[in-house]
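Much of our argument rests on the idea that a fold can be written as discrete symbols. Part of our work consisted of pairing the sequence of a single chain with a tokenised description of its backbone. We regard such an encoding as a compact summary of how the chain folds. The amino acid sequence and the backbone structure tokens for this protein are reproduced below.
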Amino acid sequence: VDAVSIGTNDLIQYLTASDRDNEAVVHYQQVQTAGLAHLLEHIVDAVRAEHRLDDLAVCGEFASTAEGARLLVQLGIRSLSVFPSAAPAVREALGTPLSS
């Protein structure tokens, strides 16, 4: 494996067994669940055990939130792909200065 990418939109959809395009079940997609944090921690631990943490990236709406970005960085994830409009708030939440 050359790289590991966690797509949080699909991960949350599968974890919660809910279709994000189906209004009848979309409310089940609660990203504040302990299950999501535990699953992400398990993935990070597995990648860390292979000494590939530098090759791990996360994308999706979860990474574009201050709460999500903080959790991901606390778990050891170093590469986040966020919406451009969310970048300033994520950087502020992480205490990361804007680069020129």
Notes: The beta strands are 4-7, 56-59, 79-81. The chain has four helices and three strands. The longest strand covers residues 4-7. Helices lie at 8-15, 34-49, 66-75, 87-94.
